[in-house]
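Researcher: I'd like a structural prediction for the single chain below. Treat it as a standalone chain; there are no partners to consider.
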Amino acid sequence: MTGDYIEWQDFERVELRVGTVIEAEPFPEARRPAIRMRVDFGPEIGVLRSSAQITDLYEPEALVGRQVVAVVNFPPKQIGPIMSQCLVTGFRDENGAIVLAVPDGKVPDGSRLI
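Model: Treating it as a single chain, here is the predicted structure.
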């Protein structure tokens, strides 16, 4: 525990949602190796673009059809030639590679972490 507590209202403001990767491709224009993706968050949010530095453990074609957890209410951020609209989440493993945060089972796209 870091000791930096947040208020419950702070957590409620972060929209962590599940979406299905519908497109993934290498992102050679990125400063560090990355994969650009389009993620479908269901009818309420729609399809958003993202870039993730996950090339150590993932190939683009293996991501298509997988569900991921992402923050969908950050402001868009320019990353090279694309505008990233969500932040796909993950954890660093013991070697520093990013392991995606994913649901343990299939849930409806757009489901919010509660």
